[in-house]
Amino acid sequence: MVAPSQCGGWGISDTPVGYDTAIATEAPKRRISAEARRALLFDAALREFSAHGYDGASLGRIAADAGVTRTVLYDHFPSKRALFVALLEAKRRELLSHLREALSPDSSGEERICAVFDAFLAFAEREPQTWRLLYPQHAPVDPDVAADHRRLHRDASRLLASMLAPDARRAGLDPASPVAAAILALQQAALEGLVRWWHAHPRVSREQVLDAAMKALWRGLEGLERGGRR
């Protein structure tokens, strides 16, 4: 957030304190819907949590950023944990929807995996704050919130596994097997680490990062797929 300039950009006036000539002519503020206010709170919370993590985030700053009082914030979310979990759930759904849209049932295994990898990288590139929220450097210190984070991550992994189940079968793997689960976990961890590296090397293009991901992560699946066709 850009810091306000010194004196907030306002000139010094001799008007007595407490007297505001704009009050008489200022139109009353239009009330916004609860849904719109919730969206403002989500936007402000995303900026706060992505910048400071769960433990360092401040509900006061979130409320001020959203242009509401803490009382209004609590009308929508009874606690910081409730706001964090609601935001996390919404953003995980957003990411999974983005990945699902990238998959074509008529594509080859290589094309589908490439599309998922590229969609993940595109999301990280377009939504860096959301990516930091979903994949923080450090888990929340609060044990209950950390458990929430792990639960949502497991749920997302299960949904992603179901999306990629046809590719596992094509490679001769049972999608419910420990081997398939391990391969998916390896891919996810590798992509997460790759995005962190990419954020530290922003001059590298997404195409180059995708090429690296395919060379490192597709080779093994390609071998399995060829073996399954024999």
Helix and strand layout, with pairings?
Blueprint: H1 34-56, H2 59-66, H3 70-76, H4 80-102, H5 109-126, H6 128-134, H7 143-163, H8 165-170, H9 178-200, H10 206-229
What descriptors fit this protein?
230 residues, mainly alpha, Arc Repressor Mutant, subunit A, Tetracycline Repressor, domain 2, 2 domains
Walk me through what this model shows.
It contains ten helices and no strands. It has 230 residues and is mainly α. Helix 4 (80-102) runs antiparallel to helix 5. The longest helix has 24 residues, at 206-229. The radius of gyration is 23 Å and the shape is elongated.
Q: Please name the fourth-level CATH homologous superfamily of the largest domain.
A: Tetracycline Repressor, domain 2
How many individual domains? 2
Estimate what percentage of residues fall within beta strands.
under 5%
**Alpha-beta content class:** mainly alpha
End-to-end separation in angstroms reads: 57 Å
Average pLDDT reading: 84
What is the CATH class name of the largest domain?
A: Mainly Alpha
Q: With helices defined by DSSP (H or I, 4 residues minimum), what is the helix count? A: 10
State the low-pLDDT regions, or none.
1-19, 21-25
CATH fold-level name of the largest domain: Tetracycline Repressor, domain 2
SSE arrangement, N to C: HHHHHHHHHH
Brief overview:
This protein is mainly α and 230 residues long.
